[in-house]
Amino acid sequence: MENSEVLEITYEAMIRIVREFPDAQQTYQKIMDHHYLQCMNHVDELKYMTTIEQFKQLLATYPKLEQQVSQEAIARYLGITPQSLSRLKRRYR
Fold it and tell me: Is the pTM of this model over 0.85?
């Protein structure tokens, strides 16, 4: 994966910020809504799409993903082994 910096904030600190700066509530809500929708979309994909359909959708959404993320991470996201991902990719291409 690309180098990145991860920042962390506790729930208690976030509540304190929202109380002190009411405008932060809107930003906080947008972030939470975005992540909630991503999770729900992933759950729907797992329930209703085949693994190959999930893989195609993942690449359509993130075209450069394979250059940025390890095959192990992609396989883990799809809930399969790296070997299964390799076979799936051969069939897909």
Answer: no
Question: Which amino acid is residue 34, in one-letter code?
Answer: H
The answer to whether 74 and 64 have CB atoms below 8 angstroms apart is no
Mark whether 88 and 73 lie in a shared domain.
yes
Does residue 32 sit in the same domain as residue 4?
Answer: yes
3-state secondary structure of 93: coil
- Tell whether the model's pLDDT for residue 1 goes beyond 70: no
> How far, in Å, CA of 10 to CA of 4, rounded?
20
Distance CA 63, CA 54 (A): 13
CA distance 84 to 44: 21
